[in-house]
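Q: Convert this sequence to structure tokens.
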Amino acid sequence: MTAMPLAQLVEALQDGIVSVLSQGAEPEPRIHGVELLDCPEVVRATAPGHLLLGVGVDVADPAALDSALRTAADSSCALAVKCAVPAPPDLETRIRDTGVPVLAVHPQMPWTRVQRLVTTILAAPTADSEPGGGTTGGDLFSLANAVAGIVGGAVAIMDTQQVVVAYSNLPDQPIDETRRRGILGRRVPEDALADHLDREVWVSDTVVRRHRDGDLPRTAVVIRAGEDVLGSLWVAFADEAAALDCGPTLQEAARVAALHMLALRRQVDAEQESRDRALRSALEGRSGQSDLPGGVRLPAVLVGLSEAAVSEEADGSSDPGIAARRRAALLRLVDLAVLDGRSLGYEPAAVLLGERVYVLLPTAGSGPVSTAVLLDHILDRARHSLHRSFVAVSSSTAGALSTLLRARRDIDAALDHLLEQRADRGAYRTEDLRPALVLRRLAHAVRDDADLRTGTAERLRAHDAEHATEYAVTLLAYLRHFGDVAAASGELHIHQNTLRLRLRRAEQLFAVSLDDPTRRLLLTLELTALARP
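A:
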């Protein structure tokens, strides 16, 4: 990796993501690499000049912060910590006195993304390192034309989502049906994906020659920045003989393309950040417009995801470590949903609010994969990558911000209902859960307004609490099963005669009338509203 001045690295990481808390004692500290601070053995073996990512370091804990600063000082490295800016003056003073270069990372920024961005930026060749006489260009289209003019073929440049980001347009270029459809659709045609994604192409460090039946012969080279794959460059030739001597030119072109692809990736990341912020504002009721650049794109489907309560980690209040791991998994789920959505043709926005992840999937211009298939894919990836199971609920299509707020309300109610019912993990739709959601809203209204209750349920519960009886739960089971004694007794695990006896006693003690439809409905709502989950 190339050493980079600390200030230049911060500038490359985008404003608002990382800022400098302390330049350190050196006039211009330079960063050579990046390591996690959570492994002492690795840190002790780390060469000076690395950026140590303070995963788990709480800047509000003086002991933890001082320990991290000492480690960075002993290894002559810089330190990055999660911290809101501007930092408190006493914190800045404590850091500055140590002489350690320290960066402040936005608290909502996942450490995994910081590590990937720093690694990618340090691995990319700089403009000063380009050898003389190499292929250069003002942008990827200029680069594609320059390469096409040198090698005599038709050039196309793709990113890792198989999107055609640039192509040459010189006159009299060779062209076939695959190239024509790829340019028109700005994406690798579906029938050419298998050839495009062939493992030989993506693991090779040199050019690879491919010739698919019905197409012109092609030569491909992967565009990399260090170990990070950014895309690929393909050249179609009129005949295979023309492709024999173009290897060095294409490899040099790939190195130059890496610079442009990194800039493109940073632009995409900036647009993603803008969409995510707009979604957060909309879901919190702080957004007034949806047609601003980078704002919420509608119509769209809103999806809410919540972790299924399957272990002791469902409640992290007793162990800060469990809570931190759970939040880290949710932040990784945000990244996973965005990356998978983009790879399958969507332009999603995703945010973490509380303990739930919300993903907005615009319906306009979406890829060939349906939202249901995408959701199943995300849940499957989360299960295998995060080793956690999630419940997901998708809304119907929302066309306005007011509809979006209602969609979030319905999703929250549906997730609460599913978690209380210990429903199986997987994807659900609010429309399919509408009866349960309506009953839930009615029960909340009855619970919150005493004028909507007759008082019978309160008397039943008070009697049960005083005399250790079970009239309330028995009546509720009976009413939920529409008077089916066999089903209700089976749910309660009691004999049918026992259930009938309780019903008669309830009618005698509390003047319960099970023959009156209106009274049955009111009693059902009251008992449901006052029942403990």
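The two ends are 56 Å apart (CA to CA).
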